[in-house]
């Protein structure tokens, strides 16, 4: 009798779980809530699920997304690798992508990432030239020679050029956008009308990758 009850409970729980998964699957549909990339982009670690944010420092929507995204990143599952990616649609965005990789090379990305957003969005500073960018980083307490050397380094220019190519591979129409495991692109468009909803779609797709 106890065995039958236990088996019955397992069947009920399994059915409930299946219905929940089915309901979620119906809620988020390829072509409506997210796009499947025609050519998947290779990720750095195939043993993990990569979630990549496509952003631009001069994008007000990316600026408001930062605290929401940071909360998600802090609470993500252990099998998820989070990556930031600066989009390159035009020459100005390429300069701003160079800022990102320069900060990474200098080892100050955590300290400067939010500050660069602040400079470009609420403060509306102009960061179009090397001199303007170097001056800003000197304000952050970094030696001018170090900034100039990093900004013009082969490694930073190579990464920036790669970002330009990868932007074409990911094919985002706007920022911010998210790419899950190099396969799925999620952005605020059509049926996805909020940044919170965008992250819910990301959660759905990461679960899909685990199955």
Uncertain stretches of 5 or more adjacent residues? 2-19
Strand order of the largest sheet: 1-5-4-2-3
Number of helices: 8
N-to-C SSE string, H for helix and E for strand: HEEHEHHHHHEEH
Explain how this protein is built.
- By secondary structure, the protein is α+β, with helices and mostly antiparallel strands.
- The protein has helices spanning 2-27, 60-74, 91-106, 109-120, 130-139, 144-151, 154-170, 195-210; strands at 35-36, 49-55, 80-86, 177-180, 184-187.
- The chain has a five-stranded mixed β-sheet, sandwiched between helices.
- It is globular, with a radius of gyration of 21 Å.
- The two termini are 34 Å apart.
- Mean pLDDT is 90; it is low at 2-19.
Throw out a few tags for this protein:
211 residues, alpha+beta, 8 helices
